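User: I'm curious whether this sequence folds into something compact or stays loose and floppy. Could you predict its structure so I can see for myself?
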Amino acid sequence: MIVIRGKGASAGVAAGPLCFYDRVKHNVARVTVSDAETEWWRFRAAQAKAVKELGALAETVRAEAGNEAALLFETHQMLAEDLDFEAAIETAIRKNAVNAEAAVHEVCERFAQMFAAMDDDYMRARAADVRDVSDRIIAILTGSARFAIESDVPVILAADDLAPSETVQLDKSKILAFITENGSGSSHTAILARTMGIPAVVGAGAQLKREYAGCEAIVDGASGVAVVEPDEDTRTRLLRERDEQLRRQETLERLRGEATVTKDGRHIRICCNISTPADVPAVLENDGEGVGLFRSEFLYLGRSDLPSEEEQFQAYKKVLSDMEGKQVVIRTLDVGADKQIVCFRLPEEKNPAMGNRGLRLCLGRPDLFRTQLRALYRASAFGKLYILFPIITSVWEVREAKKICEQVRRELASEGVAFADSVPIGAMIETPAAALMSDRLAGEVDFFSCGTNDLTQYTLACDRQNGRLGRFFDPHHPSVLRLLKMAADNAHKNGIRIGVCGELA
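Assistant: Here's the prediction. I'll summarize afterward.
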């Protein structure tokens, strides 16, 4: 019996033979072309076909798995037509005189690496979306197939990773569960697996070996464990757990719409984190009590220019309107040298996690900060907005940011622009300094939000992106919990609320 430990991405237990997925490899040759114009129109034709395919796929998925899953492919449509993506490909074709396939591949890798370098799990997972869209366009350009499962019976599908379109377009009647070497619980593939009710374990790494192909296996998507050639006791135990999980899921479904109250009568608000306006339907469908953290960085990614005030306003307005009066906490821009935002042209830093990021960057670029704040306050007229400042270490930072907020409010008032009378201001507790100063910070803001991923990283001097550190990155470390308790106690003493986000939540 061999036990493989990964991360549970979609709950459920499934048993069956292990089958390794072999995707069609696109060997993209880089060819110098004499007619760049023809190559450009080859790309445009493939792009148009990809958009049409994604639209049809969205409708198919909507019928099978609901609106949340369909939104993914509608987002992929927008990515395929993204003006910055398109412009970069056109530049590669015309300036470098290369074939369309090579141009798409090279631009895809540049964009994907930008996402992969980010310190946010959700945003890192978007690298797979970029590659998925690009693979589709390249497959159309080369006329090659994309998907196949070499098995006549239902299997537990093993792979290095699975793109969202692969997850959806593979024959579901042949898939009992997924297990992948790479990937994360926040990837769209994991989300789709949950939506479709398919158990999944991701991030198994080198434990998942080709020599196990054809072996009987059991996957437990809740605990993140897969067992190859289980003994009889293990088989009985896991299948019993499967039945128990099904009963628990039925119980949870009955609780949809009920208040989140503990047995001793305490109400705990459970909100959802989002990265784009397209994520809002999932919040509402899953009974979220609000948006606990809206990462505003999506507006700045993969583009050569800064988003205008109007563009930001429309995005924030849509989220606030669609949330129908529920709270929406929007974090002001949190980018830094590690996030490779093209339009910022930030200098390389030797230690970007401790460099010019978050509120530090915004205070150093007041023009950028004011534009975002104007958009936020304008949008506040359309819902229940909370503004959250990231990477805080000192009281003076918060006071300076609040001064700029007040200046923006006065400007809008003088211009006759509507905005909410009251917009709560919050500070993220994600550095030990912020936790240690939380007694003072609590007097400056209306709420705290504890970013436990960064708080763990900074407290333990442990790089959260370094997978080799494993057990050393421990969100339950007593030092982290003590800092959280200190922040909570100081919040309560000052009559402000405190929330938790990140993996620990």
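Summary: The first helix runs from residue 36 to 65. The chain has a mean pLDDT of 85.
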